[in-house]
Amino acid sequence: MGFFDRFKKKPEERHYDPTDIKVGDLEKGYLLDYEFETWTVKKMAEYDWGDNFFTREYIIESRGKEKYLTIEEDEGLKISLFDKIKYRKLGEDVVDYQKEHDKFPDKIVYNNITYFLDEESAGFYRDVDTDHWEEVMAFDFVNDDEDRYLSIEQWDENDFEASIGVRIKPSDISNILPVS
User: Fold this and answer.
1) Residue 160, SS3?
2) Mind giving me the DSSP string for 54-72?
3) In 4-86, where do the E strands start and end?
4) Which pTM value belongs to this model?
5) Would you tell me how many other CB atoms lie within 10 Å of the CB of residue 25?
6) pLDDT tens track of the chain, all 180 residues?
7) How far is CA 1 from CA 49, 94, 127, 137, in A?
């Protein structure tokens, strides 16, 4: 069974070992601990990048804070945690460059960290509670150490969202509890 096939099962069928729940077993409503805080999975979404390549996204919340936890299997399990930022906070240089050239610069400096364009991907996005897919274009930037990320998503001609992320290990997430 593939990683994402487990989400297509009937709700009464367990897709995990209850004595060993892993980050890839997360579903809406689950609780998890990260950095000494308990977080609740508020929403699940998935990106389809084509060629049977998917990214799973979980919106997690704790004490009024919201983060985006992403999981993908591309040459091994890759887990990242993102915070949304306002697109315009990337600076006039980035926003104006995109408007003038219809693409992003190869390098963006944000909060004294230099990110380099790593990948441009066209795909589709959906909230797993619906069957409605939306087109999305993603521009992924990474720092030299490849442990920090800047992601820009384009939803429409002038609709951009940005987020800053870090790579985390599966062991950084603990005490995963399913909904009863």
Assistant:
1) strand
2) EEEEEEEEETTEEEEEEEE
3) 31-34, 37-48, 54-62, 65-73, 77-85
4) 0.86
5) 17
6) 454 554 444 444 556 666 778 898 999 999 999 999 999 999 999 999 999 899 999 999 999 999 999 999 877 889 999 999 999 999 999 999 999 999 999 999 999 999 999 999 999 999 999 989 999 999 999 999 999 999 999 999 899 999 999 999 999 999 999 976
7) 19, 42, 22, 28
* Cβ contacts of 78 within 8 Å, gap of 6 or more: 71, 72, 167
Q: Which of 141, 14, 25 is nearest to 77 (CA)?
A: 25
At residue 8, the 3 state secondary structure works out as helix
**Token pair for 12:** 């009464």
Q: Which amino acid is at 43?
A: K
As a dihedral over the C-alpha atoms of residue 48, residue 51, residue 52, residue 58, rounded to 10 degrees, the angle is -30
